[in-house]
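User: Predict the complex.
Assistant: Input components as received:
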Amino acid sequence: MKRLFLLVTFTATALTPGFGQTGNADNGKRLFVKDGCYECHGYAGQGGAAGARIAAIGLNAQGLIHYVRAPGGQMPAYTDKVISDGELTDIHAYLQTLPKAKPAKDIPLLSAIENK
Amino acid sequence: MARSKKISVDRRGFLKGAAAGAAAGAAALVVKPEAAKAQEAAEVHRPAAPLPGAKQTAAETSPPPPRVDVYTTDRPGSDFMVDVLKTLNFDYVFANPGSSFRGLQESFTNYAGNKAPEWITCCHEESAVGMAHGYYKIEGKPILTLAHGTVGLQHASMAIYNAYADRVPVYIILGNILDGRWRRGDVEWAHSVQDAASMVRDFTKWDDSPVSLGQFAESAVRAYKIATTPPMEPVVIVADAVLQEEPIALDERGKLQIPRLTLSQPPAGDYGAVREAAKMLVNAENPLIVAGRVARTPEGIKLLVDLAETLQAPVLDRRFRMNFPSANPLYGTGSVGSADVILGLEVPDMWSTTHSQTPINRMGMESRPTTKSGAKVITIFAGDLFAKSNYQDFGRYDDVDLSIAADAQATLPMLIEECRRLITPERKSVLQARGAKLAEAHQRNKQRDIEQAAWAWDASPVSTARVSAELWNQIKDEDWSLVSDVTFFSNWPTRLWDFEKPYHYIGGHGAYGVGYGAPAAVGAALANKKHGRISVNIQCDGDLNYAPGVLWTAAHHRIPLLSVMHNNRGYHQEMMYLEDMAARAQRPVDKAQIGTAITDPNINYQLMAKAYGMYSEGPIDNPNDVGPAIKRAIEVVKKGEPALIDVVTQPR
C-alpha cells in the first residue's frame, strides 16, 4: 500500500507542469499581457501601489503556481480554469528574463535624492 | 438715457394681483353656463340705459393709445448683485456662459470692468467647479462660479459633490427664471426650474432662492459665511433672471443695503475633552497621529509639526491636504497595529484607518480592527458638527474612545499647550528616545523607496517612478507646486520629493469623482500664477477625457501649468476590478480590457493640447526622452504659458 502511494505521488509530481520543467518565455510574455498580469505588477514586473514586484524574486515555477492558486493580500486567486499550470510555467519563464534593477547609487537622479 | 416706466411696478404686488385675477378668471370659466343664463334673464328686465356722452363715445371708438416700450435702463438689478458679490472679495468668476445669468455676466464685465472678480471662460460647468475646487486648495479663498439652474447645474453636480466630500467652499450662483410669464420661448422654459438648488441640496451646506434684491444681498453674504465656517462646504444662491435684468425700483434705490461679512471663528474643542486627550497622548508608549484634512492654512502645518514633535509621535498622513513636511523624521513612520493611542485629526472615515475588511480576492465580507487590544482612539473632527444622510461619504460609524466635535486646527494650540504642561523632564527623555527610533525608521523608508524606484528604470512604457524622478530633477530648485493627486501614480512624488510648503501638494478629489484632476490643476495653477510658482500636474488620461476643454481655458487665460500625462491608455482601476471579477468567477481574464482600455486608436495628447493652443510634446515612450522634454516645457511655463508632455506610462 505504501509503495502504491509513493508511486502515485511520484507520477503526479512528474506530470505536474512547472515542476522541473522549463517554460516558454516567449509565450509567457504574451500571456503576461493577455491575462493582465501587467495591470497590477507592471510591464516589467516592477510592482507598484497595486501589486508586488514579481521580477527577479527567486520563486520557482511550482512556488509561483502555488501562490497564484491561493494568494495573499489583494491578489485574486486564479484557478486552473483561468490559467493552467503550463501557462503559469511559461509566465514564470518570462519573469526569469526580466532584468534586475540597477543599484540606485548608479542612477544619478536617484543617487541625488538619496544623498540629499 | 431713457428711464424705464416699469420701475414703479411692485412685482410681488403685481404677481399677487395677477394670481387673484387668474383665480377669478378660472371661477368664471367654471360657472359660465349658469352665469350666461342669469345674464340673459337679467337683460330681459333691465331698464333702458342712457345715451353715452361725446367724451365716452370718443373713448370707446378711438384707437387705443400706443404701447409705451421701454428699451433701456441704466441700473439693472444685476448691478446691485455684483455690488454685493464684490464685497465678498472673489478673485475670479469661473463659468461657462448661460442665458439665465446673462444679466449678471454683463454687469460683471461692463459695470464692474471685469476686475475683482475677473471672468474666466470655462468650457464645461464641471470644469468651472473643479477649477474653483483647486483654486481654493492653493489660495484658501472661495471662487465664484455661475451656472444655469438646470442644465448647467446638471453638468456641475459631480464636481460639487467632490468639493463637498473634500470640505471645500465653492460658491455657486445659479441663474433661473422663476416666474413663468417672463420665460421667452421653449428654451427658457426648458432652462427653468421650481427649486433649482434641490438637485444638489444633498451635497451642499446651504442654499437660498431670494425673491428680492434686498434678500439677495443678505443671502449672498450669509452663504459666504456658512461656506467658510468649518466644516467648509459648497453653497448655492439662485439669482432670479428677472431680478437680474429688470431695473432696480426707484423706491428701492438708496435703500438697498449690503450686510457686513463677519466670518465665524472655527470651533475649538471642549477644554476638558482636550485635557483628557493630552493626558492619553502624553502617557502613551506608541501614539500615532493620523492626519486627514488638518491644515486649513499654513499655520495648520506648523501646529501639526509642533504637536508631533512635542509628543515625538509619528504622523500617518492620508494626504487629503498638505499637512506635514515629508522630510520630517516623524513623517510616515509608526503603524496603526503598534499604536496604543491613535489621534485622528479631520479624518473623514476613521473606521477604515483602524479596521480591515475582507479583500476583493475573497468571498464574503468580514471586518476586524487592525488596532492592538486595548488601543484607544481619539478623534477631533469638524465633520461631527454637520451631517447629511443621503450621500454616504461619511463612512462607517467610528466607535472611538474620545470624540471631540471641533475644528482640529483650531483645537491644536490648546492640545499642544496641554501636552507640554503634562510632559515631565523624565517623560521628555522617553519621548526623545522614541523619536530617535522613528527617525531611523524614516530613513529606512526613504532608502526602501529609492531602491524600489530603480526597478523598471529603463523600461518602456516609462515607469511612474522614473517620470517622478525626472520631474523632481527639473523642479527641485524652483518654487514648485504639485497640483494633482498622485494616488494613481503609485504615489511616487510623495515618496521621492520633499514636500514642505503649504502649496507643495493639493491633495485629492474628495469623492473620487474622476474628471476632477484637469480642472483642479488649472484652477490651482491660476492661484499659483500671481506667486510665480511652477505648477506641476501629473494628468491621468481617463480624467482628462471627461472635459479636455479646460486645456483651452489654461491656454486662453495664459495660466502657467506643466502637465505631464500619465498615459497608461486605460481606466486602469476598473480594468483591475474586472480582472478580479473574472478570476472570482473562474472565467477568462483577458476580457478585462473590454470597456476599460483607451486604445485603438491611441489618443495623441500632444495633438490634443496643440489643438487647444498649448505647447506640447510627445507621445514619449523612451524614458531617456522624458527629462529633456520636461526641461523644454518648463521653459515655456516660466514664460507664463501652459505646456503638456505626453508620456506613455506603466499602468501604475
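Chain B has a mean pLDDT of 92.
Let me know if you want any component modeled separately.
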